[in-house]
Amino acid sequence: GLGSNLGMREENLKKAIEIIVKKQRKSIETLFSSITRLMPKNIHAVTAKGFFKKVFCFVLAHCMSCYRVTT
């Protein structure tokens, strides 16, 4: 009856959410790996602030290169 239908809907919703999460996770992992490939093996920085500035610049450069490719 109605109770078994509701159970199937919940299962279908859970499966759909799992598929969406897997796709988003894959795209995030792909982006992260492409950024880390461009980064040097070592980042020399004296302070934490300097380290984050350098990492920010690498990420910004990656975003700019992606933008340049798409336009």
Q: Looking at the chains present, what oligomeric state does this protein adopt?
A: single chain
Structural class: mainly alpha
What's the mean pLDDT score? Answer: 82
Number of strands: 0
Helix content: over 70%
Number of helices: 2
- What about the largest sheet? none
> What portion of the residues fall into strands of 2 or more residues?
under 5%
Order of helices and strands: HH
User: Shape, please?
Assistant: elongated
Distance between the termini: 55 Å
- Rg over C-alpha atoms, rounded to the nearest angstrom: 21 Å
Q: Unreliable stretches, pLDDT < 50, 5 or more residues?
A: none
Descriptive keywords:
mainly alpha; 71 residues
Summary?
By secondary structure, the chain is an all-alpha fold.
Word description of this protein:
It contains 2 helices and no strands. 85% of the residues lie in helices and 0% in strands. The protein has helices at 2-38, 48-70. The mean pLDDT is 82. The protein is elongated. With 71 residues, the chain is mainly α. The longest helix has 37 residues, at 2-38.
